[in-house]
Specification:
The structure is a homodimer. The first copy, chain A, is built from 7 helices and 11 strands. Chain A is an alpha/beta fold. Chain A has a 6-stranded parallel beta sheet, with helices on both faces. Chain A has a 5-stranded mixed beta sheet with strand order 1-3-4-5-2. The two termini of chain A are about 20 Å apart. At the A-B interface, helix 2 and helix 7 of A face helix 2 and helix 7 of B.
Chain lengths: ~250, ~250
């Protein structure tokens, strides 16, 4: 945890917050705070800042918060992901938030098993703490927006223009000759929507549907990766390509 | 599993192999092979090829193998990794093999807890099947070489020139202004040795030691990632940079 995230409702008008949960335990046992210590904080979907430990009472920590007045921008990438096995999805939530995605759009596909949708892993009470864990790791405050779609065709034809308006669209395809670093610079300054298919790949129909709706195929060389490894690798490459295309290789 | 890997000793002089383990179960239940089916195979650290199912007897599958006569090249990257928590290391083995590394050099560091070394996760009988799982996923045959080092200073001063002779050396450093895509192209054609520190980072002494031995610092933008996410992201970026520097963006 490199940032303690707070809900806006937790902070008093005077800028104080009293915590008695895992965040307090983390400050006391891992960070080893004492009265007067400074910790990095953030408001969920809001500003970052720093806080002074105003008091400790057993396992309870009271912070006095100061925010920097600037909300970090939403990450410039969105992910359209064919729903993986629950075990894989569980592992992905925190990593996706840490890598930085604005939206996580989960969808059905021909090679997605129907029962993958009947899991608590897709319930907000389950995944929200994992997304927050990822944000606290990477010092971001912007919670990814999550939506789950049962029909790929409806999603692509009816919903995507609203969910990812104006984005450059790329789809992972092991056979594609171009890489994400080739395609993204052709759309400088635009958000990027990255589509990642199921373990067995998109069906021919699905690939054609995506291509017809503007998705350009990008490969990753000859190595076929597991969905979770591929998502992390592709998001890293997409961020890198986006930053290069924006002409700002390493912003602060 | 996209490739069934065989030990050289399992294949008869006549090119036949009889399997009754997980590989047989995978062929029968996931691939749904019958007599005459073709499957992709590989020899551990050797050639790839294809096999014909010559016979099925209950849970036992006999394959007739034909190899292509070419051993795939060792991946051009090596990883020097400060030993992470056993839980994280367990998750990493298969992913590292799938992403492609020639060597996995695990080391102690100031911020590595000593008891991380006392785990079965570092024993060859534990990690070898996981490395093979990763190779079978990505269709490679080259098993990463693994070594574990208790003293970073000895490793860097005495062993590294032998373990990674002639490699370009880069170290992940969140604060570095350059990216791996900036540094690797300055060393075209050379193998790349990527050093990734512990969760808390290298100590100042360790970072200086690495810098003195030729490691150039590379950043990944402002987001701090968990060790396993960072390894996957950095290896993906390093492969991409290496391929670009080699002037061959997407080899077959």
């Amino acid at each position: 945890v490199n940032l303690i995230l707070l809900e806006r409702s937790e902070v008093s008008d005077g800028g104080e917050v009293t915590l008695a949960d895992q965040r307090a335990a983390h400050m006391l046992t891992v960070l080893g705070v004492t009265a007067g210590s400074e910790v990095r904080i953030g408001l969920l979907d809001g500003e970052r800042g720093s806080a002074t430990v105003a008091g400790i009472d057993g396992a309870t920590v009271t912070l006095r918060c100061a925010f920097d007045g600037r909300r970090p921008p939403r990450p410039p990438l969105d992910l359209l992901l064919a729903l993986p096995r629950p075990k894989v999805m569980r592992r992905l939530w925190a990593q996706l938030a840490a890598l930085g995605v604005g939206r996580i759009i989960l969808t059905n596909a021909e090679r997605v098993e129907r029962n993958y949708f009947d899991t608590h892993v897709l319930s907000e009470p389950f995944y929200r703490p994992l997304l927050i864990e990822g944000l606290q790791q990477c010092r971001d405050t912007r919670l990814p927006l999550v939506s789950v779609h049962r029909r790929l065709k409806v999603l692509v034809e009816d919903d995507l223009d609203r969910l990812a308006a104006g984005s450059a669209r790329v789809m992972a395809d092991p056979a594609a000759p171009e890489s994400i670093g080739d395609v993204v610079p052709r759309h400088p300054g635009r958000r990027v929507l990255l589509a990642v298919g199921p373990e067995g790949g998109w069906s021919r129909f699905e690939a054609a549907l995506l291509a017809r709706h503007g998705f350009e195929a990008v490969g990753m060389g000859p190595r076929t990766l597991r969905t979770d490894t591929a998502c992390v690798a592709l998001l890293a490459l997409a961020h890198d390509a986006w930053l290069r295309a924006a002409g700002d290789p390493r912003p602060a």
